[in-house]
Amino acid sequence: MGARALHGVNLTGWLMLRSWVTPGLFADSGALDEPTLIRAVGERRYRELIAHHRANFIKQADFVQIAGRGFNAVRLTVPWYAFGEDGPDPGPYVGCIQQVDDAFEWAEDVGLKIVLVLGIAPGREAEGYGSVRGRDRFSEYRSDALSVLAALAGRYKMRDGFYGIEVADEPLAQVRRGLVVGDGVPLHDLRSYYRDAYEAVRTAAGSDPVVILPDAGQPKAWRAFMAQSRYENVWLDSHLYHYADNADATGPLGVRRLVEASARSLDEARRSGLPTMVGKWSGSLPFPDSLMTPEGRIALERVYIAEQIGAFRDCPAWFFQTWKTTGRLIGWDARVALATFERRMLD
């Protein structure tokens, strides 16, 4: 795959709707997620909305702009119903494999690589994200997830733009604290799925694509897992957000502490022995002091972003969250948050 690191952006909210990315799609329904939106507006209206959204939210021009800003990759989350009727029962959901095909054409035209992500979130089924229709537990849709992974890997294995595939997006690992067991998927079940997902991708696409495993918020849990002596081209993925941290980030010292927290998390993940990428990060700081001016916050976020990029310099890849939001959210929309950074910092 070459030694050059991937520096890219997520395409969040394109093929799977996110209310914080495109709030206008949800505004009149009272819904906050895609399943609730379908129930609120009905299947026919939902199909109209998502067809228009997918055709207009991300276009070829976006890929040209992404490459022009100095990025060399995109991280594209693909829903489990991507294949429509040719995959697991999609119910009211609309397939999007044509849009994924388009993304590869557009990416290859401008020299971008694509990391595909299967948009499931084992352990978060109650949140309405990613679970296969009619299946309330990960164990019930695990085999469907493996079949979609294999189909995606097989479909794109010969494409120049295909760099790798991530086997889930936002899994939640079950954690025990004393006598209390939290929500999520037991780690042994997640590990078993990761091994089977690796085999599914390798069988379908050979040894070239990178197989990426989310750390599920537990960077310490993967030591000696899937050792490189047996498994090829396997990475771990950490998502490093700090906007919800209970921390004082009203000055450079606070920002530095947040960046140090990211660095510690990466160090813990690297003890797995696997190369560790950052699949999602943003420039959004914890809620500011009421005395901080908007200008002061923007300046501080710029410092924060620059120091985060520095902390990720040894990662094989990082992907900012995200390329585009309809509200041009400061700290989250790369067109805004990274607009003042020189291309050489991103390239």
Explain briefly what this protein structure is.
This protein has 347 residues and is of the alpha/beta class.
* Spatial separation of the terminal alpha carbons: 17 Å
Instruction: Give the helix proportion (percent range).
Output: 25-40%
H-E order: EHHHEHEHEEEHEEHEHEHH
Structural class of the secondary structure composition? alpha/beta
Estimated share of beta-strand residues: 5-15%
List keywords for this structure.
347 residues, alpha/beta, eight-stranded parallel barrel, two-stranded antiparallel ribbon, 10 helices, 10 strands, globular
What does this structure look like?
This protein is α/β, with parallel strands linked by helices. It is built from 10 helices and 10 strands. The strands form 2 sheets. It has an 8-stranded parallel barrel with strand order 1-2-3-4-7-8-9-10, surrounded by 4 helices. It has a two-stranded antiparallel ribbon with strand order 5-6. The chain is globular. The protein starts with 5 loop residues before the first strand and ends with a helix.
SSE layout:
Blueprint: E1 6-10, H1 34-41, H2 43-56, H3 60-68, E2 73-78, H4 97-110, E3 113-118, H5 138-156, E4 162-166, E5 176-177, E6 180-181, H6 187-205, E7 210-214, E8 234-240, H7 252-270, E9 276-281, H8 294-311, E10 317-320, H9 334-337, H10 343-346
Parallel strand pairs: 1-2, 1-10, 2-3, 3-4, 4-7, 7-8, 8-9, 9-10
Antiparallel strand pairs: 5-6
Helix pairs in contact: 1-2, 3-4, 5-6, 7-8
